[in-house]
Amino acid sequence: MGGKTMSEEERTFVGAESARDRRRRLMSDPARAARVSKIREATAEMDRIYAMNLAMVREAAELTQVEVAKRLGSAQGVVSRTENRRDMYLSTLYNYLTATGATDVAITLTINGKAVALDLEAILGHPALPESETSDEDVERPAIAAAGEPAAQTTTAARR
């Protein structure tokens, strides 16, 4: 058929460098690169689990309220109340989420078209409380300052 015949070297992609070169060549086409980017974004979106509430997070982790309560060192009723709260401290949210097995806990938002992730462990200044430190009663935790306010040096009892 009159077309150029590929050499054996062109038909065989052996080793990481050959594959890397081929990928680089293919992705140099802007239209192809845009299609690949769009497919990657769609795939990431499909892999994401949307949770409308904390109970859905717990269910995605395939845990019962009793199991989460054990991890928190509290009672099942505390977990139920936490899941049904409309308002809570970030530390309560963080401890609940890590008890479900969540890692890299962050709040993600969009500002001026840019995705911003707030790392809760960094904001709170401590990792999740160990099981032995939580109970049905209030737990002393560092206060979180509102935006624009200086951070308080005192602690406040966290609502559960």
UniProtKB/TrEMBL annotation:
Residues 1-21, 129-160 are annotated as: Disordered. InterPro entries: Lambda_DNA-bd_dom_sf (IPR010982). Residues 143-160 have a biased composition (Low complexity). Residues 1-12 have a biased composition (Basic and acidic residues). This is HTH cro/C1-type domain-containing protein. The lineage of its organism: Bacteria, Bacillati, Actinomycetota, Actinomycetes, Catenulisporales.
